[in-house]
TrEMBL record:
It comes from Kutzneria kofuensis. This is 3-oxoacyl-[acyl-carrier protein] reductase. The keyword Lipoprotein does not apply. It is an enzyme of class 1 (oxidoreductase). GO terms for molecular function: 3-oxoacyl-[acyl-carrier-protein] reductase (NADPH) activity. Residues 194-370 form the Ketoreductase domain.
Amino acid sequence: MSDPYLQFAQSGFGRFVTSRLGLPRPARLRRHRPGQPALAGPVLTGGAGRLDAVLKAHATGGDAPYGGLVFDATGIDNPEQLRALHAFFNPVIRQLGPCGRVVVLGTPPEELTSVPAVVAQRALEGFVRSVAKELRSGSTAQLVYVSEGAEPNVESTLRFLLSAKSAYVSGQVIRVGAAEVVEPLDWEHPLADRVALVTGASRGIGAAIAEVLARDGAHVVCLDIAAQGSELSEVANRVGGSALQMDITSPDAPARLVEYFQLRHEGVDIVVHNAGITRDKTLAKMTEDQWDAVLSVNLASQLRVNDGLLKAGALRRNGRIVGVSSIAGIAGNVGQTNYATSKAGVIGMVRSLAPELASRGSTINAVAPGFIETRMTAAVPLFIRQAGRLMNSMSQGGLPVDVAETIAWYANPASSGVNGNVVRVCGQSLLGA
Ligand code: NAD
């Protein structure tokens, strides 16, 4: 599953050749290691608005190269004032170190009424997405729209974005709303005393999600089909969790899950619908069975499980549901009408359930992975696989841990204001951008 181009381009000779020939030069992405500083350099802040206190808390004195540049654009209420972005970033953008972070904070345009303010805040998207494309050396840029009154809710999001945990997330627009503020007792183990269910946990992205949630303190119930039994037990043992063999599409799966969690854990805090399958064929060649299998695992079963857990009150307060969509669900893909339909449906699930979850003090969000190095993508023909790796701002595929870290940010109790989001973990893929 290793990327031969990445290995070549990161070698001494490869760096020389790729720079001479103007070929993509993928950087070695800095990923989270316990005990290491979140960023490799200090954070410089700028701008003025409602998030002054937040900015002060995150500014760290020190000279370039910077680890992060954070700009509060919430004070910008007409297009002329957008010049402040240029004034702040122009002199310092080249001083952002490798794997640096740019974060712009704004106000959700849909919550504003004055036309110039809506225009100016919406304009931030174009700025951030372009900065993300210009940045090199594994750096990222994101826009965070913070609702009025949600200023205390932004902490977990800034901690995630201003760290190596968001290594493969770039060019994203995130919305943070006002919600009950819940600070974890320990930011190193924010999920202590929480119980999580991860479906499809025996390998690939699911196994990484189980590992990261367990690292953050959760007891993880790892679910997969019986045929994956031995790999599933291995993962569950490794993370100190429990293994649960179950086909998520079986009619009694929701009732069995409700019973399992109520009897053993008095409910569940975090549900990650990661199990997913592909049955690729162009539409004209696709059988009904191939269509049904994908829609059933990737979408219908998730709706039924949500319904079962919510009706039984088994999802505890400040609970989390996380869907795993895909950029195929955003951009569409040849040979994947079934898969893309299911993954777009996951986005619909997030949007439609978000208000209900908020009313219960909980959230629902989704990740949309791009090209992630797993067994699923190892099965893709070589040429398409290599194109998938290169067609993004990072010029490389992501790792399962990148998806897992994003889910851990959603799962954090302090992310109570992060609801109804679909964040792409795709290195700013050109597909569906
Ligand atoms: P994978 O095939 O390695 O793992 C999927 C797991 O789901 C397997 O362990 C499988 O046994 C399990 N599963 C399948 N059907 C099940 C069922 N009926 N009940 C219970 N478990 C079942 O896949 P992966 O690459 O790790 O992908 C994980 C998720 O991420 C999937 O939803 C996939 O669609 C999504 N995704 C992956 C990529 C990528 O690049 N790998 C990109 C976008 C989205």
